[in-house]
Design goal:
Elements (H helix, E strand, L loop, with lengths): L4 H14 L33 E3 L2 E3 L13 H17 L3 E2 L4 H5 L5 H9 L5 E2 L4 H7 L1 H11 L3
Helix pairs in contact: 2-4, 5-6
């Protein structure tokens, strides 16, 4: 891990939390779509399901919270909160790059909190291809073990 990695991770969190970073001019173009209203009074909303199956697991909807954060103390609370949401709504969650914790074991808790607060959540470990080339499959195994990833 380079010396500036924790600073960069903190900057990412600070910018995301404190600045207006959304696009102002770009849109999805949905403002140009007008749906024709067609009432469905015979529809029973209790019969509608957003559930899906992926990798042999049942999920509440076809979404993944992926590559979020970790590696700095400020990230632990975020990962914990996201893991609680992942657990509650049965949505898979990926942690941020675990490179920092592989280099400095004192940072592992910023990732492990996801399993602690989402004991049944489907968790995805995260390493870059560079880490795999440099450190081999052992690094991937350690990342998976660190958060008890699925």
């Amino acid at each position: 891990m380079s010396a500036d990695t924790p600073s960069r991770k903190r900057d990412h969190l600070k910018i995301s939390l404190e600045r207006d970073i959304e696009f102002e001019a770009k849109t999805t173009w949905l403002e140009y779509v007008e749906l024709v209203h067609k009432a469905l009074p015979e529809l029973d909303f209790d019969e509608i399901s957003t559930e899906t199956t992926f990798l042999g697991r049942r999920f509440g909807m076809p979404l993944i919270m992926e590559a979020m954060t970790g590696g700095v103390p400020e990230a632990a609370e975020i990962n914990g909160n996201l893991a609680e949401a992942a657990e509650r709504f049965s949505i898979p969650m990926g942690v941020g790059s675990q490179r920092a914790a592989l280099s400095d074991s004192s940072l592992e808790y910023t990732f492990k909190v996801a399993r602690e607060r989402g004991p049944n959540a489907f968790l995805i470990a995260n390493l870059s291809g560079v880490q795999l080339v440099q450190d081999g499959v052992e690094a991937a195994e350690k990342a998976v073990e660190m958060i008890e990833a699925d």
